[in-house]
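Below is how a single chain appears once it has passed through the pipeline. First comes the sequence as given, then the structure the pipeline wrote out for it. We keep one example in the README because the format questions we get most often are answered faster by looking than by reading.
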Amino acid sequence: MNTFKLMDGLEICDLSLLIEDSMIIADLHLGYEQYLTSEGVMVPGFQFRRIVERIESIRDASGASGIIINGDLKHEFGRVSRQENREIMRMMDYLQENFREITLIKGNHDPIVPHMSGISGIGIHETMRVADFLLTHGHVIPERLDAENIIIGHEHPCVGLRSGERVEKIKCFLLGPFRDMNLVVMPSFNFISEGSDILHEAVLSPFLREAELEEFHVYGVEDFEVFDFGTVGALMEFTSSTGFGGGW
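Resulting structure:
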C-alpha cells in the first residue's frame, strides 16, 4: 500500500492521514446500522469488521503507533444505542491492544462519549495541535485557529461521477485555502455510506461554507489508491460539459 504526500509533514494512506507516528481517521459513526434499521432500512452488520480490517491495513503499511479519531466515533446524538455501546467497547479494546496512544477529537455526535464506561485511558479534546496542524471536527469553527494548517472531518466528502446510466461515488480528501490557512477535509471512515457529493450537494461544514469550494483540490481514494482529480471548479466544468457527472 502506497502513501501519497499531500503537503510537508502530511500523507494520505487510504482513508487516513499520517502525521509523524500517528494515523488520523474521522467519522466512523459506529452504530449506524441499528439507526438505519430503526428507520426501516435493513442493512447487514458488516461495518465494524470492515473498520477494524481497514485500520489494521493502514497500521501495518504505515507503522503508526498512535491513532487520532477526528470526531463522530458514534452515530446517535442524544443516547447510546445497544449496538453503539457494544461496538465502542470492542473498538476501545482493539485500539488499546494495538496502539500506544489513542485520542478522540469530539464531534457533534460525541457529547455522551466521554461519560461512557470503558473510555478511560484515551485523550478527549475539542481541538488538538500536532506539529503545524490543528485538528478539529469541523461542525463549528473554533474561536482560536493558531496553526498554518487545519484538518477537519464532518463533511464526508465524495464525488459522484456518471458513466452511462451508472453513478459511482468516490470518497475524497479536499485541500484548499481557508482565510490565510490551508484546510484539509477528510472523508468518512464509514463503509455503509459513501458520503456527500461535493459536486451536487450543499456543503455541511461552516469551514467550507465560508471558503471558496471551487478552489479546493480533490484527491479521490479508491482501493487504497489516490487520484488527483484537480480542483472542484475544474471537475464541475468537466462533468457538466461531458455529461460525466452525476447530474441529479
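The chain has a mean pLDDT of 87.

See the next section for the split statistics.
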